Amino acid sequence: MTATPAHTPDAVHTPAAAHLPDTAPALDIPSATDSMSTTDITSTSLSPSPATEAAALHTPVLAWFETHARDLPWRRPEAGAWGVMVSEFMLQQTPVSRVLPVYEQWLARWPRPADLAAEAPGEAVRAWGRLGYPRRALRLHGAAQAITERHGGDVPRRHAQLLALPGIGEYTAAAVASFAYGQRHAVLDTNVRRVLARAVTGVQYPPNATTAAERKLARALLPADEDTAARWAASSMELGALVCTAKNESCARCPIAARCAWLLAGKPPHDGPARRGQTYAGTDRQVRGKLLAVLRDTHGAVTQRALDAVWDEPVQRARALDGLVADGLVEPLDGGLYRLPRS
DNA sequence: GAAGCGTGGGT
DNA sequence: TACCCAAGCTT
């Protein structure tokens, strides 16, 4: 890290900061031509340069990460790009604690993309277990096939190539490129978005969907150095996961509490529209889950009767089963039999 | 841009 | 007990 030390005599402003170290909450991040400028640390403006402001955030968070990062299997060197990619699929909307055992089994069984690609897709769905959103298993299988066919069996390094794989969107492409290959990307997941919303923007929660303003801010905050940028991505995400949590945030343990715009503003509560809650009981989603659980736990074909037993409302049950078939999660056979997909 | 897509643990 | 929430993606 070549950035300026956090506190240099550039503080011509804010003379007597009685309690906290010179607070500069509102990061004056460039609004145009985002971070293309090189680190012009030498700029002589009276207020700290954006790079200096950003470094004031980076340094404490990177240091905190050194001592507080969890020892997760996909962070170990032996995980490789495939391990990172598998973990990212599994972690899409599923907590770490539930991913851990399935991840270990998955990597032991399919240590390379080609190993998974050689399997029937239904085996991926079965091994997915109860992680939820089983379409992810199908997409991971499809991604493994594409990697095997188009990329010689190696997880591609380029963001655009990753993005072209099934199940990989903006976040996952950036995460794999950054975590697996040490590249410089804005990695905007829900944790990072929350950290930036609070520390920089001064609000309790980010918008429901990722906005252009958030992307611009994240890019502006990206350290210039590639390796530092990759560590910043991991550490800011970890901060959101462990300290700057959605509920019961722990500001007392936060390395940037002194600079958090939201904390400095007195932690004003969120005023925008509430997140739309995800109902579940009685929905097609629940029925799909019950149907697929039967298929997962049965090797070979399942009878219509066995599926009928999981839900008594026939119209909804049929609709859910049709949906699973349409999604490729279930394969219908002749004679009212069903199984996990072989192809 | 909103809706749909699983599951289980915490409060 | 009912919510709320967890490293999103696709249509």
TrEMBL record:
**Source taxon at top rank:** Bacteria
Q: What region holds the HhH-GPD domain?
A: 90-242
Asked if the Swiss-Prot or TrEMBL record annotates the protein with the keyword Iron-sulfur, the reply is yes
Query: Which InterPro entries does its entry note?
Result: DNA_glycosylase (IPR011257), Endonuclease-III-like_CS2 (IPR004036), HhH-GPD_domain (IPR003265), HhH_base_excis_C (IPR023170), HhH_motif (IPR000445), MIG/MutY (IPR044298)
EC numbers:
3.2.2.31
Question: Can you tell me where the transmembrane regions are?
Answer: none
Its UniProt entry gives the catalysed reaction(s) as: Hydrolyzes free adenine bases from 7,8-dihydro-8-oxoguanine:adenine mismatched double-stranded DNA, leaving an apurinic site
Keywords per UniProt = 4Fe-4S, DNA damage, DNA repair, Glycosidase, Hydrolase, Iron, Iron-sulfur, Metal-binding
Keyword Zinc-finger in the entry? The reply is: no
Q: What's a BP term from Gene Ontology annotated to this protein?
A: base-excision repair
| Composition skew (Low complexity), residue ranges | 31-49
For region Disordered, the annotated ranges are 1-52
Q: Name the Gene Ontology molecular function terms of this record.
A: 4 iron, 4 sulfur cluster binding; 8-oxo-7,8-dihydroguanine DNA N-glycosylase activity; adenine/guanine mispair binding; metal ion binding; oxidized purine DNA binding; purine-specific mismatch base pair DNA N-glycosylase activity
Task: Tell me the cofactors it needs.
Answer: [4Fe-4S] cluster
UniProt cross-references to Gene3D superfamilies, sorted A to Z: Helix-hairpin-Helix base-excision DNA repair enzymes (C-terminal), Hypothetical protein, domain 2
Record family assignment: Belongs to the Nth/MutY family.
Protein name stated in the entry? Adenine DNA glycosylase
Lineage summary: Bacteria, Bacillati, Actinomycetota, Actinomycetes, Kitasatosporales
